Amino acid sequence: MATRRKSIVLDVKHLRTEFGTRERPLVAVDDVSFQVGQGEILGLVGESGSGKSITLRSILGIVRPRGRVAGEIRWNGQDLVSLSEKQLRRIRGREIAMIFQEPMSSLNPLLPVGLQISENLVAHTDLDAKARKARAIELLELVGIPAARNRLDDFPHEFSGGMRQRVMIAIALASNPKLLLADEPTTALDVTIQDQILRLIQQLSRDLGMAVILVTHDMGVVAETCDRVAVMYGGRLCEIGQTADVIADARHPYSLGLLRSIPRDVAPRTPLYSIPGAPPALNALPPGCAFSARCPVAGAECPEVRPGLQSIGGLRQVACHHLGDAQAHFRPREAAQ
Amino acid sequence: MTMPASAIASPLLSLRALTMRFEKRRSLSDALAQRPHQVVSAVNGVDLDVMPGETLGIVGESGCGKSTLARLIAGLHRPTSGDILFEGESVVGLKGVRRRAYNRRVQMMFQDPYSSLNPRMTVRDTLREAISVHRMREGAAIDRRVDELLDLVRLPEGAADKYPHEFSGGQRQRIGIARALSLEPTCLVADELVSALDVSVQAQVVNLLIELQDDLGLTVLFVAHDLRLVRHVSHRVAVIYLGGIVEIGPSEALFSRPMHPYSRGLLAAAPSLDTGARRRAPALVGELPSPLAIPPGCPFHVRCPHATELCRREKPALRPVGAGMTACHFADTIGDA
């Protein structure tokens, strides 16, 4: 877990992704900057519509051509934003791989899984047919599929949800990627299977030195899996830091509210904390802080003036005008316990 | 925790050896070869008492039969065998007026607020239909009741004449609750009521449910896979595995000291916010076996770290262990491990 500033593999600077017309753009990701170190697991957490999935897709360039990506995405020194589709294809799936929430809809239902793994090996390695088969078996064993040799000819529908996600991971690993982008990989799975998949991702990251960006809406998943966490709201980053620090001592009113609304150390059947209102629509974001409309400590300037990410010591950055007020507002519960 | 003063009262709802089997359709070749029908055993001999005014949480992995159980209670399936008693009277064979009376008193709320509301009916029409079909009110009193219900679930004024798509997910769940309450039921069956909602909105709906239950003296069956929420709202919790109860007991006791090895694995697998307690190995290995072929003996023995020859041979009965009931041959000894 000790990933103190290892060499940085991905450096995202002022990423902005928008859709719609140029006159009235819908800004899904707005001025997002973060870095991922080698072998590090970064959690990207937020509610639906917060821009976390679009951030991942922007990295791989799969929001094009409908989405417009601006800013810089430095991958080993090279800016991915400026690359052509053809140049990107050499990195996509080879150096950077991605897994999705719905393994059933990302696997081809008409092809056996062995062939789907081989396809990736054909595209990204020089192995011959025999070596590819051996490698496919090796990969399925690596992700914990029992009797892997006998399952190469099975179709996706013959696997359970958890096993399908393992197959997806095996396909992603075929080219020995340096970075794995995981978009809610366990949201559709039971907690027991989710636990198995997360432990697998953790183990692979550790053993292969692979960096991971894990998108999730569950702070519990972050707490158990990620080294660092970035909290997103309304397409912007509101807080980023070491996982243990953020969970023990969140500073942004949104992270504080999100953590507080999870039942933990509260008397049964007493009212849970809930953030008032609902997440904002992309076309109704204020020029200032995206969270200001639901924020308990927002001042008059918050909807107008955008707070920037400020370093508050350690590896922690927070974007809020009222850090002191937020801490005072959310403190009473701890005192009451 | 305020346990309802019903420990001595007679149960509102009793399930007696309740069993639900679904026959799989045979393919033509199977029929010609006279192979027997394959049978999915979704619910296998469940005995359960639900006390008036209590919240009973029902948890388990997907495919364990918890939704089938909820649907049996709501009268959406007719059980293969066994009995459901409501206030001491069997409701399985009810017809006509008495069936409708039962249907009115036991109301179900569904997971998906998008598909459980008619998109072409305004909220007022949806509620009016329920009220007038069951003749709860007449004439102008119907509209007064609609306004009253919307007020009860805290929907804004003017909500009555809008269509479901004009509401957020959380508000749609409130409409679902209002529809259930319009029939002045005694018992609510909530099947994954808040699973589709964002964390910050979940808390709003859960708070509302607890408050309404206390105000109206409702009995609630809370089926969910989010164990943190189940712990928060339930007085008692039943853990289901392959269609049978493996453990049932007071919520706090069960969560702080689960006795059945399956409950232990399930609780350990649920993501917690405790960053200090990271595991390298998954809490529970393997997957839920197919309900087409339930293992003999204890259904959990294939995944159980403590299984012995006895477990493979003999199915353990539910018996008192600690504060609740557990179906495990070795609950007493492994409970202390």
Structural account:
The complex is a heterodimer of chains A (337) and B (337). With 337 residues, chain A is an alpha/beta fold. Chain A is built from twelve helices and twelve strands. Chain A has an eight-stranded mixed β-sheet, sandwiched between helices. A four-stranded antiparallel β-sheet of chain A has the order 2-1-4-5. In chain A, helix 4 packs across helix 5, helix 4 runs parallel beside helix 6 and helix 5 crosses helix 6. The mean pLDDT of chain A is 91. Chain B is of the alpha/beta class and 337 residues long. Chain B has twelve helices and twelve strands. In chain B, the strands form two sheets. In chain B, strands 6-7-8-3-9-10-12-11 form an eight-stranded mixed β-sheet, with helices on both faces. In chain B, strands 2-1-4-5 form a four-stranded antiparallel β-sheet, with helices on one face. In chain B, strand 7, helix 7 and strand 8 form a beta-alpha-beta unit. In chain B, helix 6 runs parallel beside helix 7. Classes of the chains: A alpha/beta (337), B alpha/beta (337). At the A-B interface, helix 7, helix 8, helix 9 and helix 10 of A face helix 7, helix 8 and helix 10 of B.
Topology:
The complex is a heterodimer of chains A (337) and B (337).
Chain A: E1 8-20, E2 25-37, E3 41-45, H1 52-60, E4 68-75, E5 78-79, H2 85-91, E6 96-99, H3 103-106, H4 113-124, H5 129-142, H6 161-173, E7 179-183, H7 191-208, E8 211-216, H8 219-225, E9 228-233, E10 236-242, H9 243-248, H10 253-260, E11 310-311, E12 317-318, H11 323-330, H12 332-336
Parallel strand pairs in A: 3-8, 3-9, 6-7, 7-8
Antiparallel strand pairs in A: 1-2, 1-4, 4-5, 9-10, 10-12, 11-12
Helix pairs in contact in A: 4-5, 4-6, 5-6
Chain B: E1 13-23, H1 28-32, E2 39-50, E3 55-59, H2 66-73, E4 81-86, E5 89-90, H3 96-105, E6 106-109, H4 123-133, H5 140-152, H6 169-181, E7 187-191, H7 199-216, E8 219-223, H8 227-233, E9 236-241, E10 244-250, H9 251-256, H10 261-269, H11 309-313, E11 319-321, E12 324-326, H12 331-334
